[in-house]
Here is the input.
Amino acid sequence: MTSLTRRTFATGTAALGVTTFSIGRARAAEFTYKFANNLALTHPLNKRAQEAAGKIKEETGGRFELQIFPSSQLGSDTDTLGQIRSGAVDFFTLSGLILSTLVPAAAINGVGFAFKDYDTVWKAMDGKLGEYIRGEIVKARSIFAFEKPWDNGFRQTTSSTKPITSPDDFVNMKIRVPPAPLWTSMFKAFGSAPATINFNEVYSALQSKVVEGQENPLAILETAKLYEVQQYCSLTNHMWDGFWFLANKANWDQLPKDIQAVVTKHINAAAVQERADIAELTKGLQESLTAKGMKFNAVDPAPFRDKLKAAGFYTEWKGKFGDTAWSTLESAVGSLG
Ligand code: X2X
Here is the structure.
């Protein structure tokens, strides 16, 4: 009787000890996965990712935690592409054009002036073109992409020296481009002097005038504060660019199916919401960036497209992407000549 009481008492104490311990530390998730990206916390991509992380944690009863590393905290895009392949990071949002250093087909949405508007973009990227690109990504074996691409935006050209009004203004311009062959090729076709620089070094490269300009959507000018180091913004709309939400396949395969389903659902839903956020944010940005000192000008895209054509840009890239990819693109956007 006495010994039974003592045993009961001992068990009770141990259980209490465990309870106190878990309250004090907050329960550690069973799975903590890292998501790296190159954008500021204020960018809609990070806002929606954070929201999704909260919903995932809740719906998995705290079993899964998505840890977000914004602003290239884990390294440049080039570094992080290595890390997502090896599994050192679990998730990574990356432009298809940069991903093309591993999966050549992933650059195809970046062909100059291919998309005339967002309806065309989402129809293609949520349809056959996106499906084709994801199929190519899977062939790289170490990674895969979630179904819904996130929006970066239509890219505009900024400069600290002059507005871009005609293709001639691009000639000899020292312009930063992201690390991707299509970008370098396109700006060489314009006659510019493109310099490859990862995004985490763009602000300082512009500030120190290593380059005079760069090109990015308005949401990036705002959230990365590029307006502080650039004066002119020319609405060239020369390319639509988005982010694939990539996962390391081996790490993903270690998750139970029910957790995979919850993560997939909330990440894809967040992508669709982020697209709407970018559309909403972009509406007011020309005005607010003007108030911050930027000078905007509209641009007629026709002579820019003609210049790319004359330089053989479309012929060259049609050859590189191959007939299947090119005809998938053209059936979404029309003939690129
Ligand atoms: O590097 C860029 O310019 C950015 C932020 O737009 C991309 O991620 C491609």
Observations:
- DSSP finds 14 helices and twelve strands in the chain.
